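Researcher: Structure prediction, please.
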Amino acid sequence: MKNVDQNTFLDIDLRSLGENYLKIKKKVNRNCIVAATVKSNAYGLGIERVLPTLISSKCKHFFVASTDEAIEIRKMNKKVEVFILNGLVLDNLSVISKYKLIPVINDLKQLKKIESYQSKFNKKIKIAIHFDTGMSRLGLDKNESANLIKNQSELIKKSDLVLIMSHLACADDPKNKKNLTQLKKFDKIRIHFPNCLHSISNSGGVLLGRKYNLDMVRPGISIYGGNCQIRERKHYKNVVSLKSKLIQTREINTGDTVGYGATFKAKKKMQIGTFAIGYGDGFSRLFSNNCRVYLNNKRVNLIGRVSMDLITVDLTNFTNLEQIANKEFEFIGNKNSINTICESINTIPYEILTNLGKRYQRRYIS
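Model: Predicted structure follows.
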């Protein structure tokens, strides 16, 4: 669905996205595989355009959350490797086999289930196994890990184990001792699985240094231009810009209020403008009276509450409103990146990016 007024635009710079991926490749060891995490529709940017860009940058391994996401990728490309992070959530495992997908096994029940399927139907399926080393979310726990290590030859008879992995809980903080603790735990596990790939690093893990590279890294937010560590310096290029044209301007007088709840009250005569963008488009209500918008180098402030489809800004400093009537104001961009605006509402760039709605006119720069 598109914004019927066609006044709001989400620009996605595929060139910068590809350059970010290649920059990550330069950061890791030469033989380290750089996979791409493209779950949630490539972090909301559109898998149908992001996937070909990454493939053209020589990416051959992709991670998604769900089976549906994996099938969508497989229908687009027959050759790439597609890993399903949420594991076996289907009763019908024929889908995994049909589309040649790689489930990430998260407990021994899932392993038993896929082993049984392969025995029954004489199939050979690639799998990955996730070992929990401190996230306490998905993956084999301590007891299951010990059981699998001890009885590996009995528990893995049919499956083609291509990857074992874990996930860093505190990679956003390079000073956190838990990062090294998890790496050491995983090192003790992976010596028992020498004939497959080993992976522990997400975007934050890439920045922790090359000892965290192992055989494969799985960056996500970094590819899309988002910061993944606390006080991270600028490593990657901005990929997204959110722009909008005014749909109305008006003059208000001293004492007039703006928006729901009358949370903004004019202290003087003002010129204000309205844009067709709101929380229905993923532009958070927390930006109410709390966001800077740019036209070229000129800053304007968002005033009043963000409503479902509309927001208002202060245009008082513009002397000629006719000259800016058809201009594109920047809500997210080089001056106001996802890494900057997330701080004002105490969230993370991941949430800003994945919340961007479907009503925007998307313009891909390639």
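Model: The domain at 240-365 is CATH 2.40.37.10 (Lyase, Ornithine Decarboxylase; Chain A, domain 1).
Researcher: Thanks, that helps.
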